[in-house]
Write a structure and sequence with these properties.
Phosphodiest/P_Trfase, Phosphodiesterase, 9-stranded mixed sheet, alpha/beta, Alkaline_phosphatase_core_sf, 28% helix, hydrolase activity, globular
């Protein structure tokens, strides 16, 4: 098999490759680039599952970054078990072709308990005293201590939250080199998330994200040259494009105001009570699965959703198959936003009654995706002093709440999830193996086969 590396440069689109990405511009010109027709929703977990299985969400089951677990009556995001992906992965297929094949998965999602030979994924520790301690999960287990002894602790707080930076992406790139030099896998999958942060913060204005583009270009330059010098073929691809947005839509507040969503009060604050609600939305960027407990309410809920400014379409059972979203994990209805809009998870009607986790970075408690976690609340006076005080409490062993995140959805300037307005604003794939790219565009479900062709064709 031909040694192959796939660099997943999140958020990279044709219109972002230019003067701020000199290496990628040259490398693209020496090979061939094709646009990818993304899957709906164009979000991390769904896109990756489609790329790695060659199947659509109706088959692999990853209908979003999170969904409503009906048997538990709980909304869960960012689960990590690979068992949730209900189809064979590219490494399973490749190993059937060649038993000597090996695969390393560096930070692509659903990266725990898979059949990949080598795996590294974020896995913070949560002691009973309330701390969140950066850590990783690895396969084999001893890779965890080897990596962090060599590279230092994984910079979790630079990976997501208001302190995101190139440090996390650089650590991932360095971990890929570490695994390469010790294990020499046939296929290496590397997740490089850096552009995801600035594009959601600032939108697609290249003047505002020039530094971030230069930083990811430098990481790609280093990795591509490193792997090519070791005889590897390199594929650069992205999962989705991010579009500028100016219209946050609070679906759950609208459902609540119409008597459909139920909350539970705890210590003066409100929690979404999904199991007791007639209808609620699980918001994920520009797509929301809307779960309707009683079928007799579906027409009412659909009519309500269709009247909301910024909602482009609402899919029901008859329309979901056209987008391959007819899976038991999907909502009874699916709302898709217009390109300039996105869906919040907010369900409270008074910010004073918002749950305590709303003002923190807490991707697992929140019943929906929250990009506002990228922002320190601008209303906090002397935010660095407040953060320093919180960290001192942590160091002294006191319980603390890092409640520094804004509740202002207007801060978010970029989003994704709906199908892009144009190919230049969508995902792409670049390869030097031009003979394997015989069209200008490919389906997201074709990426798996294209990776296999890189592995097996000279």
């Amino acid at each position: 098999m031909q040694k192959t590396v796939v660099l997943n440069v999140v958020g990279l689109t044709p219109n972002l490759i230019g003067k701020h990405t000199p290496f990628l511009s040259r490398w693209k010109s020496s090979g061939k680039a094709v646009t990818i027709e993304p899957v709906l929703p164009a979000v991390t977990c769904t896109a990756q599952a489609t790329y790695l299985t060659g199947k659509s969400p109706d088959e692999h089951g990853i209908v979003a970054n999170g969904w409503y677990f009906r048997d538990e009556c709980e909304i869960k995001f960012w689960r990590q078990s690979n068992k949730l992906v209900q189809a064979p992965k590219v490494w399973d297929i490749a190993k059937q072709i060649d038993p000597n094949f090996t695969c390393a998965n560096l930070f692509w999602w659903y990266n725990m308990y898979s059949s990949a030979d080598y795996a590294v994924t974020p896995r913070p520790m949560y002691p009973a005293d309330g701390r969140k301690i950066p850590d990783i999960y690895t396969q084999p287990e001893n890779l965890r201590s080897q990596l962090q002894s060599q590279l230092g602790q994984f910079p979790l707080f630079n990976f997501w939250g208001p302190n995101t930076s190139i440090r996390a992406t650089q650590w991932i790139a360095d971990s890929a080199k570490f695994v390469e030099e010790r294990h020499n896998p046939t296929l290496t999958l590397v997740y490089l998330p850096h552009l995801d942060y600035c594009l959601q913060k600032y939108g697609t204005d290249t003047n505002k994200i020039a530094k971030d583009l230069q930083e990811i270009d430098a990481v790609c330059s280093d990795l591509i040259q490193y792997y090519e010098n070791r005889g590897a073929q390199v594929i650069v691809l992205s999962e989705y494009g991010i579009t500028s947005v100016s219209k946050p839509i609070h679906l759950n507040r609208i459902l609540r105001e119409n008597g459909l969503l139920t909350v539970r009060e705890e210590l003066g604050r409100e929690l979404l009570d999904a199991g007791a609600s007639k209808a609620f939305a699980v918001a994920d960027h520009q797509l929301a699965h809307v779960y309707v407990d009683d079928p007799s309410y579906i027409l009412k809920v659909r009519s309500l959703l269709e009247e909301i400014d910024g909602v482009a379409q609402v899919l029901d059972e008859t329309e979901k198959p056209a987008y391959h979203l007819n899976h038991s994990r999907s909502g009874e209805l699916i709302a898709v936003a217009q390109p300039d809009a996105w869906f919040t998870y907010y369900y409270w009607l008074d910010d004073h009654r918002a749950p305590d986790f709303a003002r923190t970075v807490d991707i697992h408690r929140k019943p929906g995706y929250d990009p506002v976690e990228l922002f320190i609340d601008p209303q906090i006076k002397l935010p660095q002093a407040k953060i320093a005080l919180k960290l001192l409490q942590k160091k002294l062993g006191f319980r603390y709440l890092m409640d520094v995140i804004a509740l202002d959805a207007d801060l978010v300037k970029g989003s994704h999830g709906c199908l892009p307005p144009s190919p230049d604003e969508g995902p792409l794939l670049i390869s030097q193996q031009t003979n394997l790219l015989d069209s200008s565009s490919i389906q997201a479900s074709s990426v798996c086969q294209l990776i296999l062709e890189h592995l097996t064709k000279k």
